């Protein structure tokens, strides 16, 4: 397992591709002065997150503990630094891989991880960092667990029956090849035997008739929509006229009250009711015109609704046929 996880193995390449990690470059294991072995891995993670960015580069420094025993137990500490995410200079992650051999061809992997801070951010930034970082860590290790289980199953099957996987792959390839050959034959037989020229002509004719009906209905609906727009414009003008008449009536009423209070001798009281009657008649006429316009608008909307119902019915009939 150590070679699978910490070398340029095929398993690790597949895992990196699954995690959308590209441009992975690693150095060989080198021993430092304390007896530990060091290795550096750089790569680019494709994120496509609008809050973080499209990608980020990362540097992973791996340290193989000197107490590790080849073929028996390994302990690897990995420090991961991301360089292009927001607040990347505040934190980094530390992962510890503990691999222990339990039996022949069997081992146990134990993982632990933590988020470390180079400098303490304030509350909101810290919660944002931990939320995004821990979600990424969980996704990464869940994918690693899934890939390791699949690899374990494949290795177990190959050990028990080396030819079983090869035979299974051959059967799958032959099945796909046979299906690819049979499908064109069946489709050609069906088209030549079951559908004649007359039936094809009938289908084309039905499609043309349906297209003509649909076009006619669309034209009629467009005319109704145009009339509806004109009625709305007329109604708007009528309502504006009502508003102006009401405002003028209100102004005249105020002026009449002032004239009654200030100069009752100069204005005859018989002219005021006559003027009020004229204003009321004018407003009443405008209201009647508006009511008539609303009735026309209602009838137009009803006709438009019936047209929509007819169009939906026509489309459903075409689908059934």
Automatic annotation (TrEMBL):
Any one GO molecular function term: cholesterol binding
Subcellular location: Membrane
Record-annotated membrane-spanning stretches: 216-237
InterPro entries attached to this UniProt entry: Cholesterol_transport, VASt
Start and end residues of each VASt domain: 1-156
Key word Signal present: no
Keywords in alphabetical order: Membrane, Transmembrane, Transmembrane helix
Lineage top rank: taxon: Eukaryota
UniProt key word Cell inner membrane: no
GO cellular component: endoplasmic reticulum membrane; endoplasmic reticulum-plasma membrane contact site; plasma membrane
Pfam families linked to this entry: VASt
Any one Gene Ontology BP term: intracellular sterol transport
PANTHER family: GRAM DOMAIN CONTAINING 1B, ISOFORM E, PROTEIN ASTER-C
Protein name as catalogued: GRAM domain containing 1C
UniProt organism field: Chelydra serpentina
């Amino acid at each position: 397992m150590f070679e699978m996880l910490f070398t340029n193995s095929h398993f690790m390449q597949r895992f990196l591709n699954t995690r959308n990690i590209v441009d992975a470059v690693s150095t060989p294991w080198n021993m430092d002065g304390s007896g530990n072995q060091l290795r550096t891995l750089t790569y680019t993670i494709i994120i496509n997150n609008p809050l973080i960015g499209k990608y980020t580069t990362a540097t992973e420094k791996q340290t193989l503990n000197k107490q590790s025993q080849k073929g028996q137990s390994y302990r690897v500490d990995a420090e991961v630094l991301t360089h292009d995410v927001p607040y990347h200079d505040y934190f980094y992650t530390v992962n510890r891989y503990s691999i222990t051999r339990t039996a022949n061809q069997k081992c146990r992997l134990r993982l632990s991880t933590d988020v470390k801070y180079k400098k303490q951010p304030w509350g909101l930034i810290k919660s944002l960092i931990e939320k995004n970082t821990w979600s990424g860590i969980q996704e990464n290790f869940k994918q690693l667990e899934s890939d390791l289980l699949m690899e374990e199953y494949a290795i177990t099957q190959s050990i028990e029956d080396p030819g079983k996987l090869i035979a299974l792959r051959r059967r799958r390839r032959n099945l796909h090849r046979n299906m690819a050959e049979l499908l064109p034959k069946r489709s050609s037989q069906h088209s030549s035997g079951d559908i004649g020229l007359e039936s094809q002509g009938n289908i084309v004719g039905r499609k043309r008739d349906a297209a003509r009906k649909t076009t006619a209905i669309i034209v009629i609906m467009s005319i109704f929509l145009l009339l509806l727009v004109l009625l709305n414009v007329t109604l708007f003008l009528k309502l504006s006229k009502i508003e102006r008449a009401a405002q003028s009536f209100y102004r005249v009423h105020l002026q009449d009250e002032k004239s009654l209070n200030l100069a009752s001798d100069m204005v005859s009281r018989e002219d005021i009711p006559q003027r009020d009657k004229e204003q009321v008649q004018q407003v009443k006429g405008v209201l009647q015109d508006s009511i008539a316009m609303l009735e026309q608008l209602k009838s137009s909307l009803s006709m438009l609704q019936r047209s929509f119902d007819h169009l939906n019915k026509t489309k459903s009939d075409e689908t059934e046929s």
